[in-house]
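Exercise 7. Given the encoded structure of a 306-residue chain, write a plausible sequence.
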């Protein structure tokens, strides 16, 4: 299937999403200063629901009322929000935000693998296979040397982040069943966030008993609000608008830029450091994504021919 063209507005949305989601890792670091991981996940989701419902009402959309649709929302909310958020937020208690964002960029790599085995019309092409191999090499460069010393907290945290990206990829395949229905992308996003918040409520209450926690500071609340409003409610609205106008493969371009934003914010605002192996791994992952995308190579070939 041919990718839709990209307008100036589409590129503007890509840059905006890169800022919103790249900055989310900084917001997670702030939130974790006052909230344990599961409580922060719940706050991110629960605080995002009211503005998303408001956007739906303004745009004239309505949520479905049948049990089948809400059952699909619960599955999507579990594998595309609640569980991967748990893994990423816990992971960031052991690794820096920049590394977490680089690992998050592997989501399209797992997407190629899961789509190849779980769908009939999205089989892996040679370019995508090369991209996956490059991305896996990048993961080995970053995680492999640490893993040789045993399953330390850092290694387990990196593996947790990778497991979260695999869940994102599975959710993308599952989400095709909803995209082929009569529900709009914004309705699907709102249903997903709402059900994920409901899933997280008992998890938070049982695992962390937030009523026994000390009061969080303003920085932690700022992180929670930043995750909920800009990085969830607003970002999902623009993300699904981008998919509508430019297609899912073009929306993947956000993965190229987002880690750069996250690493810069982490270094400048949090004083984090970036190790050479992390830069090397990020470069291999970026090459893998470029190989999968398949649009730059023809341009370079045309330039060479000219």
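Solution.
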């Amino acid at each position: 299937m041919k990718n839709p063209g990209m307008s100036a507005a589409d590129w503007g949305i890509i840059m905006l999403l890169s800022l919103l989601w790249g900055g989310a890792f900084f917001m997670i670091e702030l939130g974790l200063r006052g909230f344990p991981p599961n409580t922060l996940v719940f706050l991110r989701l629960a605080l995002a629901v009211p503005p998303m419902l408001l956007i739906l009402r303004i745009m004239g959309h309505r949520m479905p009322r049948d049990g089948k649709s809400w059952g699909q929302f619960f599955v999507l909310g579990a594998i595309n929000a609640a569980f991967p958020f748990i893994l990423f937020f816990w992971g960031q208690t052991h690794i820096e935000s920049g590394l977490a964002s680089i690992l998050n960029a592997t989501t399209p790599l797992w997407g190629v693998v899961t789509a190849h085995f779980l769908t009939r019309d999205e089989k892996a092409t040679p370019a995508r296979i090369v991209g996956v191999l490059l991305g896996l090499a990048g993961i080995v460069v970053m995680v492999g040397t640490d893993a040789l010393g045993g399953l330390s907290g850092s290694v387990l945290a990196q593996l947790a982040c990778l497991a979260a990206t695999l869940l994102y990829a599975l959710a993308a395949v599952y989400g095709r069943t909803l995209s082929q229905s009569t529900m709009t992308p914004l309705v699907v996003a709102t249903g997903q966030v709402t059900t994920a918040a409901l899933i997280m409520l008992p998890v938070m209450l049982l695992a962390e008993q937030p009523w026994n926690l000390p009061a969080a500071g303003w920085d932690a609340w700022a992180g929670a609000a930043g995750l909920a409003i800009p990085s969830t409610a607003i970002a999902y609205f623009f993300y699904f608008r981008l998919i509508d106008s430019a297609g899912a493969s073009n929306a993947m371009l956000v993965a190229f830029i987002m880690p750069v934003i996250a690493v810069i914010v982490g270094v400048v605002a949090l004083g984090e450091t970036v190790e050479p192996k992390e830069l090397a791994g990020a470069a291999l992952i970026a090459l893998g994504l470029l190989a999968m995308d398949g649009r730059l190579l023809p341009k370079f070939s045309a330039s060479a021919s000219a």
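Remark. Residues 142 and 277 are 6 Å apart (CA to CA). Students should compare their own answers with the one above.
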